[in-house]
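Subject: Protein entry, chain in single-letter code together with its fold tokens

Category: Structural biology, sequence-to-fold work with a learned token vocabulary.

Notation: Tokens come from a learned vocabulary of local backbone shapes, not from coordinates.

Start of record: The labelled sequence and token lines come straight after this line.
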Amino acid sequence: MTKATLKIDKDYKIGKIDNRIYGSFIEHIGRAVYGGIYEPGHPTADDMGFRRDVMELTRELQVPIVRYPGGNFVSGYNWEDGIGPKELRPKRTELAWFAIENNQLGTDEFCEWSRRTGTDVMMAVNLGTRGVDAARNLVEYCNFKEGTYWSDLRIKNGYKDPHNIKLWNLGNEMDGPWQIGHKTAEEYGRLAVETAKAMKWVDPSIELVACGSSNMSMSTCYEWESTVLEHTYKYVDYISMHQYFSNAKNDSADFLASIISTDDFIKNIIATCDYVGAKKRTKKKINISFDEWNVWYHAREANKKAERWQIGPSFNEDIYNFEDALMVGGALITLLRHADRVKVACLAQLVNVIAPIMTENGGRIWKQTIYYPYLHASLYGRGTAMNVLVDAPKYDTKNFTDVSALEAIAVESEAEDYLTFFMLNRGTEGLEVECDLRDYPGSRVAEMLTMTCDDLKAINTADNPDRVVPKTSGDYELDDNKVTVKLMPYSWNVVRIRINES
């Protein structure tokens, strides 16, 4: 094993972690809704048709917030189609994913699912084919108590209490030519600010997310954010970021190194936000909602053969392997490294569609490989993000140089009784990592979890759901306020330190 070190200073805090950084996403695409969260007639379905097995795993993940209903879908969505008596709801051609939307699950049902699951809603409004009027009406429908047309209609539809949705997306990926109602930055900025004003006039307590670039490869990236924020800075609280990772070229070293690009992307977006803030002579900071991110490439070829105009078809059902789990772990570390400015993040998506949870229609449910680093971060990554200094071997890949074999972050729990290290060894050699705990004298190792596999391409399936799972490890030694842990090559690791109990 080669050696590496981690140094941590108790006073060197990155910032308080907003628990919404562990959010997820449900879009009307493929089997995310129909066959995912909602399947009347399933053996586990409750009185509203929600799959209890999906709800159980969502609760296990402690997902704090779920973005809905899109995604590309929202840019052509009439939210009014999804409320009221189900037998009167129209079927529509859904142009984002070329499916039929039967609207059997809409705003009220999703908010009820969220309540039953114990998560909050992040609602997106349509700024593709619609605009100010539909958005402000939706806020009124969801958040106004009573005594107006839309709030009284909600009550008539069976929901006396407001849904009280506090976080809203002003559209989705409006810079993308693939988007229904695609706009220039100037066009979107003008529409977004007028929509934001009206929405906040209806409910001043809400927070708003302006659309950032769809990905860092867009030719308009950063210029888009600058222009949009010139219009919206006063009224919005966050700018969105989206990024997906691909190993379509089957270069594992380059794939796992590409997390570095996320770090650079975040830094550049922060700089752009602060540039606009400086121009406006304001102390207000625009933070980041990283509301779409994941590995996404496995199902792209299958998607080309998908039959159009189906209800809840199989689509974008990536089957994740072990190296994808490593990638997700590394991305989570990167998000936590910027916890002072990344306040919301949504793993896209929750079930069936590029998701940690997979189901069979009418049948079984299982956890994909990426489920586990997401679970560990959500459970143990709440509190204060601590900066760590990493000294580890480096290597080069096709597109990246000086790649550290070790990615790491530490989180001090909210009660300040645990210090958790999240460590990714993305190298081909084992690492012996020495962690200096001099600022935490008298501590002990409470638990070490490790996830490794002899096959980077190994997957979990309904028939073999435990092929790639984390295990408890004893590969550590604690001596003189130093803990030394041994990390297997290509491994995701969680080391939980119980801070001095005296």
Notes: The chain is about 25% helix and 25% strand. The mean pLDDT is 97.
